[in-house]
Specification:
187 residues; Aminopeptidase; 8-stranded mixed sheet; 5 helices; 8 strands; protein N-terminal-serine acetyltransferase activity; transferase
Length: 187
């Protein structure tokens, strides 16, 4: 079923989501290296990704999760240049649910890129994967990340107390969800 989503999703004339693959390892490493300070504030995995080989291992795991129908991880390409990642994670086809996760290089923040990419992935999740629920989690102090689900009509469900361990401390996460029936009304 997941294989029907395709390896590339067109967002608009300048943005493309490309299914993550081995040839992305070097560029992902460089992108994270340049954005390390910006990303490590919100993402627990950043400090563990210290080499191209770390990214190759991650990509292999992502490809395995794709084969197991539990993940659809994409790189975000803007005019053929990689600028971030976005995907459907924790896909549960039995319960028809998934989570969206994303990050973007600092130079491209505030341009609506993640919102536009999320719209495409949400459409694909509800229409092609027949999901019923999509969730986004963001740190309670990450207001830019929280603005995305709000802009897309998600409902704030609550807070997961100490839900993530980042930079040697636990942080609280806001949980937002969107149901298929709500998305049909929103778009």
């Amino acid at each position: 079923m997941l294989l029907n989503m395709g390896s590339k999703l067109k967002v608009d004339d300048s943005l493309l989501l490309e299914l993550i693959d081995s040839h992305h390892a070097e560029i992902l490493y460089q992108l994270v290296k340049i954005n390390r300070l910006h990303l490590r504030k919100w993402l627990p995995w950043v400090d563990h990704m210290r080499s191209v080989e770390d990214f190759r291992k991650y990509i292999n795991g992502s490809k395995q999760r794709y084969a197991n129908h539990t993940e659809m991880g994409y790189v975000i390409m803007a005019n053929h240049v990689m600028i971030g990642r976005l995907g459907l994670y924790n896909i549960d086809l039995i319960n028809k649910s998934a989570s969206i996760g994303y990050w973007l290089d600092k130079e491209n923040l505030g341009k609506g890129i993640i919102t536009r990419c999320c719209k495409v992935v949400i459409d694909e999740g509800f229409s092609r994967l027949h999901l019923n629920r999509i969730e986004i989690r963001a740190a309670t102090t990450n207001y830019k990340s929280q603005a995305i689900p709000i802009r897309l009509g998600f409902t704030r469900e609550g807070i997961i107390r100490q839900g993530e361990f980042i930079n040697n401390q636990f942080i609280d996460l806001c949980v937002y969800s969107l149901l298929k029936e709500e998305w049909k009304k929103f778009v």
